[in-house]
Amino acid sequence: MPADDFAHVRAWVFDLDNTLYPPAVRLFDQIEVQMTAYVMEALKISKPEADRLRKHYWHTHGTTLAGLMREHEIDPLPFLENVHDISFDGLSPDADLAACIDTLPGRKIVYTNGCAPYAERVLAARGLSGKFDAIYGIEHADFQPKPDHAAFERIFARDGLEPEKGAMFEDDPRNLTVPHTMGMRTVHVAAARADGGHIHHHTDDLTDFLSRLTG
Ligand SMILES: [Mg+2]
Which CATH class is domain 3-21+92-214? Predict the structure, then answer.
């Protein structure tokens, strides 16, 4: 493990969904159900059409919300509140991950395409409350989502984060492209490897990866 690769890192940026909890929890399945229902209601369309649009927006705009805002001028706040109104019963506290995060030197932040209140609830269910110096949601990026360059610029400027001293942990490889361009260390957290020169490291076990960085 090239711990040396991270010796200069003083800002640790973590995505939330499927990064700070295992994808097997499938929290996003619940959110997708909520999103489809919201799209059906907002645009007065059928379920198959709403599902199709959701996937189209995700590919074209990065998130469903970004597509809804850009193509239909949907108000983001009621959308975010509604789609994140889900059960957190599948999440359990992770003391090992919490301990690893504690040992990282410098600033630790969460940056999600969801909203910050949702992130707080997820972190609470994972036993990770209070482990991070800041939690940023899409509302802090003027509702521009990762992977947009402007979204990262906005969040990092707001935090005072120096990308050359930063590391980004993400399950969606698309969201590592801009961090790589900005000079961050990039870590893809997922079961399967993704291709791309913008990914410095891959792990299917975030806790194990972090423990090997800090000894
Ligand atoms: Mg994610």
Answer: alpha beta
| Alpha carbon 122 to chain centroid, angstroms | 12
Q: What is the pLDDT of residues 54-100, one digit of tens each?
A: 999 999 998 899 999 999 999 999 999 999 999 999 999 999 999 99
CA of 16 to the centre of ligand 1 (A): 6
**pLDDT (tens digit per residue) in 152-211:** 999 999 999 999 999 999 999 999 999 999 999 999 999 999 988 899 999 999 999 999
Question: How remote is the CA of residue 24 from the centroid of ligand 1, in Å?
Answer: 13
How many angstroms separate the alpha carbon of residue 28 from the centre of ligand 1?
9
Q: Determine the distance separating the centroid of ligand 1 and the alpha carbon of 46, expressed in angstroms.
A: 27
Q: Could you tell me the CA-to-CA distances from 10 to 66, 105, 109 in Å, in that order?
A: 31, 6, 11
| Protein fold of 27-83 | DNA polymerase; domain 1 (1.10.150)
Residue intervals in the chain for CATH 3.40.50.1000: 3-21+92-214
